[in-house]
Amino acid sequence: MNRCLGLAELGLGFAAPNPLVGSVIVHHNRIIGEGYHQVFGGPHAEVNAIEAVADKSLLTGSTLYVNLEPCSHSGKTPPCADLIIKTGIPEVVIGTSDPNPVVSGNGINKLKQAGIRVISGVLEDRCLELNRRFFTFHNRKRPYVILKWAQTRDGFMDIDRGDSGIHQPTWISNEISRMLVHKWRSEEQAILIGTQTALMDNPRLNVREWPGNSPIRMIIDRNLRLPGDLHVFDNSSLTLVFNGIKDSREQQTEYVRLDFSGSILDQLLTFLYARNIQSVFVEGGQKLLTSFISENRWDEARVFTGQGKFGHGLPAPVIAHVEPEEHRIREDVIFFYYNQ
User: Fold this and answer.
1) Is pLDDT at 280 greater than 80 in this prediction?
2) Could you tell me how far CA 119 lies from the centroid of its own chain?
3) Predicted confidence band at 161 (pLDDT cuts at 50, 70, 90)?
4) 3-state SS of the chain?
5) Which pLDDT tens digit goes with each residue over 133-157?
6) Is 124 a catalytic residue?
7) pLDDT single digits (tens) 62-96
8) Which residues contact 52 (CB under 8 A, 6 or more apart)?
């Protein structure tokens, strides 16, 4: 199962909105085939593992391990449970059941009804952690929300720009940390900023310093005051603009109207759930980040702390009553917060 989890993680950033799944086939304590779900729409992990077995006659005396319950329905690919039954594999070991209503328990039942011995709940906590985006989406009916910001040692996330005309990021973290952020972007389906961040930093919100897919770009611009020459409007990828004025589509820019008379976060997350977007990477400014924290609409926060000090400026958001995990990248410290 450890090996299944390691294989499954290779699909991060490519398999979504499908879950991360790895599979290993063992015959007499020897691995004879393994695979993982490599890309959305492609073969599932169990199919790739079975295809990797050179001598298919060994399958009738083998055990298949998989970190998530095999699917029992036809989607972009046929049911994995049917293939397992067809090959004659007598035993299947599963990490955790699938929360998707079209699968949930049906795959396990189908295997058992075919006379296959099924063992489940192996390394279940780690299996749940790996697919936390998938489980949050199906259990809470919203995407998994990751907050990210950088702050100085004295607790500021930006200088006081005022009317300085500075329209580029104020770097706090080192270049390796910035590369890591691009890796993180490639792992999530969407990235979100607010109006002020778009205006002041003019970010591209894509993946440039790491191989992988760029997320869907999303901006909150209540009154549609952002100029059209910003990088986010270059039509290089889908960009969603949440506003209070209109619903429309112009090339790769889609305008989505929300009701700004109250909180907009639930509206935004509900919209993303309907679009089957399972994770959001929030790289906004203090106001947007603090709104997610104060309304308790976050799951993870990744906070870079550089060695420099600003003395004064824009205070960073504060997460209270949560003990973070601490990691280092050269002189930078990253604090990981998990909302229980």
Assistant:
1) yes
2) 28
3) low
4) CHHHHHHHHHHCCCCCCCCCCEEEEEECCEEEEEEECCCCCCCCHHHHHHHCCCCHHHHHHCEEEEEECCCCCCCCCCCHHHHHHHHCCCEEEEEECCCCCCCCCHHHHHHHHCCCEEEECCCHHHHHHHCHHHHHHHHHCCCEEEEEEEECCCCEEECCCCCCCCCCCCCCCCHHHHHHHHHHHHHCCEEEEEHHHHHHHCCCCCCCCCCCCCCEEEEECCCCCCCCCCHHHCCCCCEEEEECCCCEEECCEEEEECCCCCCCHHHHHHHHHHCCCCEEEECCCHHHHHHHHHCCCCCEEEEEECCCCCCCCEECCCCCCCCCEEEEECCEEEEEEECC
5) 999 999 999 999 999 999 999 989 9
6) no
7) 999 999 999 887 666 788 999 999 999 999 999 99
8) 25, 33, 34, 35
Distances in Å between the Cα of 219 and the Cα atoms of 137, 151, 199, 204, 317 are 21, 22, 11, 12, 19
- With cut-offs at 50, 70 and 90, classify the pLDDT of residue 311: confident
pLDDT of res. 308: 83
User: Other C-beta atoms within 10 Å of 307: how many?
Assistant: 13
Percentage with pLDDT > 70 across the chain: 96
Token representation of residue 340: 């229980």
- How does 108-140 read in b/e, with b if 16+ C-beta sit within 10 Å? bebbeebebebeeebbeebbbebbbbbbbbbee
pLDDT in tens, 40-64: 999 999 999 999 999 999 999 999 9
Catalytic residue among 9, 34, 46, 283: 46
Amino acid at position 316, single letter:
A
